[in-house]
Amino acid sequence: MIIEPGHMTIAAWRDLRGGTPATLDPATAPLIAESAAAVTRILAHHTPVYGINTGFGKLASVRIDDADLTALQRNIVLSHAAGVGDPAPVPVVRLMMGLKLASLARGASGVRPATVALLEAMLHRDLIPLVPAQGSVGASGDLAPLAHMTAAMIGVGEVFVKGERRPAEAALADAGLAPVALGPKEGLAMLNGTQFSTAYALHALIEAERLYRSALVTGILSTEAAKGSDAPFDARIHELRGHKGQIETAAALRALMEGSAIRASHRVDDLRVQDPYCLRCQPQVMGAVLDLLRQAAATLTIEANGVSDNPLIFAETDEALSGGNFHAEPVAFAADMIALALCEIGSLAERRIAMLVDPALSGLPAFLTPEPGLHSGFMIPQVTAAALVSENKQRAMPASIDSIPTSANQEDHVSMAAHGARRLEAMASNVDAILGIELLAGAQGCDFHAGLASSPPIEAVRERLRAAVPTLKGDRYMAPDMEAAIALVRSGALVTALDLPGVAP
């Protein structure tokens, strides 16, 4: 794939995250070269310019001699590589590298072509720096994570090569690459920016889209198990309200239920006037989720195509302008939106599981077992789902409302975008498990309607599950069943062949 700065889509970032080899659009070469040349011209004036011949942050008033400019840029990388915690996942770091390449190639960062080329070569050859996941407050850029990425480029630290951790310098040599000696402005340009926060948020957005779609499938499976009505999905209801996500979600739910013999079996003599909200209000709740994810996607698409380091180089006038594009508040807000969406996907699904195991609500045997009492059936899987929902509720508190001063109060308001985005991976994993449990419960409920089939797409899902997990006829060791169902949700196989709404406009 080609990284086209300023024109990348969510779909393109999804491909990059997934390991598709990527190279930078050759048309960007003149912009990169001219930006680097502008830094050389600015230096020739011998006037103090932040980040080029001065210290950083609170030390911006300290003038640096020309002889020390290379050391200055190396020092900022070494001193700022101060992250802690587990390594960020390789797909997230791949995204971060791609985002940084796209930003540098806009020609406003003053980085030399050779430095950009090394980052491009590392990404293309799958030399992925080991980046500790904790240590950024999401303002003045994601300094620590980006410093660890850049450290690998100067031969310091470690990289992942085909899943193996290796010393960066040795891995570069084996790949026929040499560490770079950073020139004026380059260390700061590499470290400044929102690419770590944005990569994590994009990663979560892609997962959240899959989970939204998967929850439509498991939601209809539960609706069928409870012999719920499709009347609440009638297009006329949703057109009157007017929300785009709600309208599209209702249409998708109708399509998933079309042709169901289970639904046809109780259409005339349906004794239940109204279904519980967890069934009836799926278009309203999941439609709002879709709208929220689309809003987050719009923000992240802009951010991913923008330039967020500081100072910015304007080659046409040989100016270096200091600003605050490194402040990741837009990303923090987007991450909070995704957190809310993930929380609600899981919350609604758990209510459907709880409904199915309650015979007073579902009309099915208690806890979905043929012999309640002797067997406990789905009693504790529902408890597990409830526990995961509560975890996600705690994690869903907005990160963007927090701030803490850093750098001796020079950086006195920060976004917390990095950990706001980072928490989303654990939240998505919880939703995978909740939907996996619903998949099992919904299929088990439908099994009690022997002789009646659901719609073709839902029957295909049931068949896929039953190929790995048989019907629960009596209590057995549940963990393997749950692991198989969760893996099925996480793989995306539930929705691969279905035409369902997504985050793209």
Task: Tell me about this structure.
This protein has 505 residues and is mainly alpha-helical. The chain folds into two domains: 2-193, Fumarase/aspartase (N-terminal domain) (Fumarase C, Chain B, domain 1, Orthogonal Bundle); 201-312 and 324-491, Fumarase/aspartase (Central domain) (Fumarase C, Chain A, domain 2, Up-down Bundle). Helices cover 55% and strands 6% of the residues. The protein contains 20 helices and nine strands. It has helices at residues 10-17, 29-44, 69-80, 90-104, 113-124, 143-153, 168-174, 186-191, 195-225, 235-241, 244-257, 261-265, 277-280, 282-305, 329-357, 359-362, 379-395, 417-447, 456-466, 478-491, and strands spanning 2-3, 23-24, 84-87, 127-129, 132-134, 158-161, 164-167, 312-314, 319-321. Strands 4-6-7 form a three-stranded antiparallel β-sheet. A two-stranded parallel sheet has the order 1-2. It has a two-stranded antiparallel sheet with strand order 3-5. β1 (2-3), α1 and β2 form a beta-alpha-beta unit. α3 packs across α6. The longest helix has 31 residues, at 195-225. The chain is elongated, with a radius of gyration of 26 Å. The two termini are 22 Å apart.
Features:
20 helices; 505 residues; 6% strand; mainly alpha; Fumarase C, Chain A, domain 2; Fumarase C, Chain B, domain 1; three-stranded antiparallel beta sheet
- Global geometry: elongated
Low-confidence stretches: none
Estimate the mean pLDDT confidence: 95
Q: How far from one another are the termini?
A: 22 Å
Q: What is the H/E order?
A: EHEHHEHHEEHEEHHHHHHHHEEHHHHHH
Protein name: Histidine ammonia-lyase
InterPro entries: Aromatic_Lyase (IPR001106), Fumarase/histidase_N (IPR024083), HutH (IPR005921), L-Aspartase-like (IPR008948), Phe/His_NH3-lyase_AS (IPR022313)
Pathway: Amino-acid degradation; L-histidine degradation into L-glutamate; N-formimidoyl-L-glutamate from L-histidine: step 1/3
Cross-link (5-imidazolinone (Ala-Gly)): 139-141
